[in-house]
Design goal:
With 789 residues, the protein is of the alpha/beta class.
Length: 789
C-alpha cells in the first residue's frame, strides 16, 4: 500500500492507538506491522476475526493477555539441551497459565452453540498443567528455589540452618562474653561470605583467628575467630551442595519443558495472534465501531461516519457514497467547513476496512477493496527542493496520474490551488475529466465555480458541499451530496461588520452570469432543506402507517381466532344435540316395537310418551336459558386498575389488571387465573380504595399495590455487583407479581462486570422467559431487556 497515503491519511495514528491495546511485545509488533490488504479474502478474514472477538467481549467481558512472555529464546536453548534459569522457567509457567486462562475464556456456554473463526485458535491452546504446576511448586521467585523442590535440597537447607545457628551462637557468646572489650562494636558481620568480628587493631593478639579485612583507617580488623573457622568451612560446603541441588532441579524442569517444545512454541504464536485480534476488537469497542461490508465493485457507502481521531462528543457524522451513481465527487464550500475532514474520513475508513479494523459508522456501511489509495492533501512545499505549494502538489499529482488504475481510490484536496485561478480551474477540470474517463473512483475538494459547473454538466460526476450556517457564521460540518457549495463571502463579511457600500460595490463587480449561478446555488440549497423536511415528515407518516397496519393485523388475527373458536364450539354443540336427538329417536322406536310385541297397555304407553315429552321440554328450557345479566352495568370510564369485579360467564370474582381497550376487552386476575374478558361480562363489586380498607385479602392488596407502583425499568448504575443483584432480585419479584410483561434493566457498559452479573442472575431466575441486550435506540449494550413467562 502507498506509504505516503498511509501517513497523509493518518493511518499511522490509528496504528499507534491500536498498539496501546495489545499486551504482549509480539502482538504490539503485529499491530505496528499491520497494513491494508488489497485482497478481499484476507480483508474479510480480518474483519471476521475482529467481529467475533468483539462479540465475545460483549458477551463475556474483556480478556487479559498480560501473562504472555516471549519464550522463543528459551525454546532455542532447550533445543540444544541447555538448562534454563529460574527466570526463564517462570516465564514458561506464566505463558502456560495464560494459555489455560485464555482457553477457559474461549469455551462456549451451554446456551451458545454457534461456532466462529476463533474457536480453532482457542481449541489448539494446550496449557500443559503438569509442567506449569511443577514449576510453580519448585520456584518461588527469580532468585529463590523452594525448600521442597527436592528431598536432597530440603535436607541440605535444614543442615544449613542448623550450621548457621551454631555459628551465630558461638559468635554471640564471644560478643557478649570475654571478647567484648576487644571489639570495636558488639556486632557480628560478614566478609567474603564468612562471619567475622570487628576487633580493635591493638587487641589483635587477644582474638586469635584469620583476618579477612580492615577498616579504611586501619583501627578495626575483621577477624574470623578460630572457634568458627571450621563451622564456616562446613557452611561453605553446604552452600556448594545447595547450588548443586538447585542445578539438578533446574535440569529436571528443563528436561520436562524440552519434551513439549512444539506445544510451547505453538502456544506463544496462538496467544500473540489472539492478543492482536482482541486488540483490534477493543479498539472497535471503544470507538463504537461496526463491521463494514466489503466489496470489489469499487462501491463506497459510509453511513454517519465519524473521523476516529476527532473528539467523539464534537465530531459531526457524515454520509458519503461513491461508485454507484457516480465515480467522481467534487466537494465545495468555505474554508474550515469540513471538506478536508470528509476527504480524510473516506480515505482512512478505506484503509481501516482493508486492514481488518472496524469503522466508527452506522451498521451496514460499505467499503470497496482497492489495490491502492492515493491522497494529495495539505501543503507540501519544500524549500530544499525549491518547490512552491503549486509545484509540490503538481509533482504529487503527476505521480498519481502515472500510477493510478481503475482499482485505485484517488483523493485531492484543493485541486489546482496555488496558481492563477483561471489556469488552476482549467487544469483541475482536465485532471478530473481524465480520471473520470478511466473510471477511477475520485473525490476532490475545491473552491472553483468552474468545477461546480463541470459536475452539473457531466454524467457520472456529482457535486457536494459542506453546509454553512450564515446566521451563526459557523459551519455545520454536514456533507450534502447533490448540492454545490457557496463561498458565502458577502454574507460572512456583512455579518462581521464590513460596510454595506463596499459589499454592494463588490457585488457590482461580479458579472451577471456568476450572480445567476450563485443564486441558483442558494435556491438549490433552500429546495434541499425543504425536501429534507418533507422526507422526514413522510418517514414519520410511513412509521405511523406501519404501526396502524400492525395493530390492524393483530386485531384481525384475534377476530379470526375468536371466529374459529365460536365455529368450533357451535359445531361441537350441534353434534351433541344431534347425538342426543338420535338417542331419543332410538329409544322411542325401541319402546314402540316393545309395546307392539308385548301388548303393553295404553296407559303405560301414555306414561312413557309423557316422560319423553318432559325430557324434551327440559332440554329446550336449558338451551333457551338466557345468560346471566349483571345487576349493575359496568362503564369503561368508571373502571380503575384494582377494582373488584365478578366475571359472570365463569362465576368468579377477580381484580381488574388492565383498563378496557376500544373494544371493551380487559384482563381480570382471578386468583392464579388471569383472563381477558369483555366489559359486558362483568359485574361491579367495589373500588380499589375500599378494598384496601379491608374488603380484600393481604395477597390481593399486595398485588394491586405492586401493579400500581412497580416501574418497567430499574437503574443499577453506580451500585456494586452485590448491591445490584440484591436490588434486581427484589425488583423482579415485584414486577412479576404486578404482571409486568417485560422490564428494562439499566446496568451501563463499563467493564462489563455488572452486565455479566445481571445476566447470570436472569439465567437463574425462574420467572424470566428470555433476556437480551438492548437494540439500537433502547440503550445498546448498556441495557438488558427481560421478558417474564
Amino acid at each position: 500500500m502507498n506509504q505516503k497515503a498511509l501517513h497523509t491519511l493518518e493511518f499511522d495514528k490509528i496504528i499507534h492507538t491500536l498498539t496501546g491495546y495489545a499486551a504482549s511485545a509480539g502482538a504490539k509488533e503485529l499491530c505496528r506491522n499491520l497494513t491494508p490488504s488489497g485482497q478481499l479474502g484476507e480483508a474479510e478474514l480480518r474483519q471476521t476475526e475482529t467481529a467475533d472477538a468483539l462479540r465475545r467481549i460483549w458477551r463475556k467481558g474483556s480478556l487479559s493477555f498480560g501473562g504472555i512472555r516471549d519464550i522463543r529464546g528459551s525454546v532455542k536453548r532447550l533445543e540444544i539441551g541447555a538448562v534454563l534459569g529460574m527466570s526463564e522457567l517462570l516465564q514458561i509457567m506464566s505463558l502456560l497459565e495464560t494459555a489455560g486462562k485464555v482457553r477457559r475464556y474461549g469455551e462456549r456456554d451451554e446456551d451458545d452453540d454457534g461456532r466462529d473463526s476463533l474457536d480453532e485458535s482457542f481449541g489448539f491452546l494446550d496449557p500443559v498443567p503438569s509442567l506449569a504446576s511443577e514449576i510453580r511448586r519448585c520456584i518461588l521467585s527469580e532468585e529463590e528455589m523452594a525448600d521442597d523442590a527436592s528431598g536432597a535440597l530440603s535436607q541440605v537447607r535444614r543442615s544449613m540452618r542448623q550450621m548457621n545457628d551454631k555459628v551465630h551462637s558461638t559468635l554471640n557468646s564471644m560478643v557478649n562474653g570475654s571478647a567484648r572489650s576487644y571489639l570495636q562494636d558488639p556486632v557480628v558481620t560478614m566478609r567474603d561470605g564468612r562471619y567475622c568480628l570487628p576487633v580493635k587493631a591493638e587487641h589483635r593478639s587477644h582474638v586469635p583467628g584469620m583476618i579477612h579485612d580492615q577498616s579504611a583507617t586501619g583501627s578495626t580488623l575483621f577477624i574470623e575467630p578460630m572457634a568458627v573457622i571450621k563451622l564456616n568451612n562446613d557452611f561453605k560446603e553446604l552452600l556448594l551442595k545447595e547450588r548443586q541441588e538447585i542445578e539438578k532441579v533446574l535440569a529436571s524442569l528443563s528436561e520436562k519443558a524440552a519434551t513439549v517444545l512444539e506445544i510451547l512454541s505453538e502456544n506463544y504464536e496462538l496467544l500473540v495472534r489472539l492478543d492482536f485480534i482482541f486488540a483490534r476488537a477493543m479498539l472497535a469497542k471503544d470507538m463504537k465501531a461496526t463491521r463494514p461490508v466489503l466489496n470489489t465493485e469499487r462501491r463506497l457507502l459510509i453511513k454517519d461516519g465519524r473521523h476516529p481521531l476527532l473528539d467523539p462528543a464534537k465530531v459531526v457524522p457524515i454520509t458519503v457514497r461513491l461508485g454507484q451513481d457516480f465515480d467522481l465527487l467534487i466537494v465545495t464550500g468555505p474554508n474550515t467547513g469540513g471538506k478536508t475532514v470528509s476527504l480524510k474520513t473516506v480515505g482512512l475508513f478505506t484503509l481501516m476496512g482493508q486492514a481488518g479494523l472496524h469503522i466508527p459508522a452506522f451498521e451496514g456501511s460499505e467499503l470497496a477493496v482497492f489495490d491502492q489509495v492515493y491522497a494529495d492533501i495539505g501543503d507540501e512545499q519544500s524549500i530544499e527542493q525549491s518547490l512552491s505549494t503549486f509545484s509540490s502538489h503538481m509533482t504529487s499529482i503527476v505521480s498519481i496520474l502515472r500510477e493510478a488504475t481503475s482499482d485505485s481510490l484517488v483523493l485531492f484536496d484543493e485541486l489546482g490551488a496555488g496558481t492563477d485561478p483561471t489556469e488552476g480551474a482549467a487544469l483541475a477540470a482536465s485532471i478530473l475529466d481524465h480520471l473520470h474517463k478511466q473510471g477511477i473512483r475520485t473525490m476532490a475538494t475545491t473552491h472553483y465555480s468552474e468545477l461546480k459547473v463541470y459536475a452539473l454538466s457531466t454524467e457520472g460526476v456529482e457535486n457536494a458541499c459542506c453546509e454553512f450556517d450564515v446566521e451563526s457564521l459557523r459551519p455545520t460540518y454536514r456533507l450534502l451530496i447533490g448540492i454545490p457549495g457557496k463561498s458565502n463571502a458577502f454574507a460572512i463579511s456583512s455579518r462581521l461588520g464590513l460596510a454595506e457600500f463596499l459589499i454592494e460595490d463588490a457585488k457590482a463587480r461580479i458579472n451577471a452570469q456568476d450572480v445567476s449561478f450563485e443564486d441558483m446555488m442558494a435556491q438549490l440549497q433552500d429546495s434541499r432543506v425543504t425536501l429534507l423536511k418533507e422526507q422526514e415528515e413522510i418517514a414519520r407518516y410511513k412509521q405511523e402507517i406501519r404501526t396502524l397496519r400492525d395493530a390492524l393485523q393483530k386485531k384481525q388475527d384475534r377476530i379470526d381466532e375468536r371466529r374459529e373458536k365460536i365455529l368450533s364450539d357451535a359445531a361441537a354443540q350441534a353434534s351433541a344435540i344431534l347425538q342426543e336427538a338420535k338417542d331419543y329417536a332410538d329409544e322411542t322406536m325401541k319402546n314402540f316395537h316393545k309395546f307392539g310385541k308385548d301388548h303393553i297397555s295404553v296407559r303405560e304407553m301414555e306414561a312413557e310418551r309423557a316422560r319423553l315429552r318432559e325430557r324434551i321440554k327440559s332440554n329446550d328450557a336449558r338451551s333457551a336459558k338466557k345468560p346471566a345479566q349483571p345487576k349493575k352495568k359496568v362503564r369503561a370510564a368508571s373502571l380503575h386498575i384494582g377494582d373488584r369485579v365478578k366475571v359472570l360467564s365463569l362465576n368468579l370474582e377477580g381484580t381488574v389488571s388492565t383498563l378496557p381497550n376500544p373494544r371493551g376487552d380487559l384482563f381480570v386476575q382471578m386468583g392464579i387465573l388471569r383472563s381477558q374478558v369483555n366489559i359486558s361480562d362483568l359485574e361491579y363489586i367495589g373500588e380499589a380504595e375500599n378494598l384496601q380498607k379491608g374488603s380484600v385479602s393481604g395477597t390481593g392488596k399486595l398485588r394491586m399495590s405492586k401493579s400500581a407502583l412497580v416501574s418497567t425499568e430499574i437503574n443499577l448504575i453506580g451500585m456494586t455487583v452485590d448491591e445490584a443483584v440484591s436490588h434486581l432480585d427484589k425488583y423482579l419479584d415485584d414486577a412479576y407479581l404486578a404482571h409486568v410483561p417485560s422490564v428494562r434493566i439499566v446496568h451501563g457498559k463499563g467493564t462489563g462486570a455488572l452486565r455479566n452479573a445481571v445476566h447470570q442472575h436472569l439465567k437463574r431466575c425462574k420467572h424470566v422467559k428470555t433476556y437480551r441486550l438492548g437494540a439500537f435506540g433502547e440503550g445498546d449494550a448498556g441495557v438488558t431487556i427481560a421478558e417474564f413467562k
